[in-house]
Amino acid sequence: MGSPTEPLSALGRWYLYALHGYLAEVLFTATWDFAAARDWRFQGGSSAWAPFIYGTCGLLLERLYLRLRGRCRLPTRAALYTVCIYLWEFATGALLRHFGACPWDYSHFAYNFMGLVTLEYGAFWFVGSILLETLVIRAILRLRVDGAVKPLRPGAAFVDTVD
Questions:
Q1: What GO cellular-component annotations does this UniProt entry give (predicted)?
Q2: What pLDDT is recorded for position 159?
């Protein structure tokens, strides 16, 4: 008989969304720089704030997915996700800017709002939200933790067996 499993905790899911968002941003900025300036070094960038921003937004979009999955089709959900992403990017950017810590500035884009968001990224956010739901959120929600395995005591040696 298999051991009982339980869903990944909210903190575990937040962590995976944070890692995914951070990696996606680094790859996106590297690709953007390559396309714009033919920078063959393919160096992406991000900030220390990115994991908090992406992890929290991932949990919010996960909740939205769970509420909407049986009520509307994927393109409609992706449009709603995109709106949420813009609102989250604007809100976190405004908060960080208040403390002089906002790592992005879209002022050089034609269709920016206060330098915190830009419509030029709309298609990327839309496609990215479809990929987020279909490849990341659905997979993370399927992850299970073996509930029979007991956590190690601090300072205990690693043992790959169950008591």
A1: membrane
A2: 54
Four-residue CA torsion sign, 18, 67, 65, 6: positive
CA-to-CA dists, residue 91 to 34, 75, 145, angstroms: 29, 24, 34
How confident is the model at residue 78, as a pLDDT? Answer: 98
Question: Are the C-beta atoms of residues 13 and 30 closer than 8 Å to each other?
Answer: no
Mean pLDDT of 66-91: 97
Residue 101, classed as helix, strand or coil, is: coil
Q: What angle do CA 141, 142, 148 make, to 5 degrees?
A: 110
Instruction: Give the C-alpha separation, 58 to 8, whole Å.
Output: 14
How sure is the predictor about 1, in pLDDT bands with cuts at 50, 70 and 90? very low
Q: How far apart are CA 110 and CA 56, in angstroms?
A: 29
User: What pLDDT score does 163 carry?
Assistant: 47
Taking the C-alpha atoms of residue 158 and residue 124, their distance in angstroms, rounded to an integer, is 43
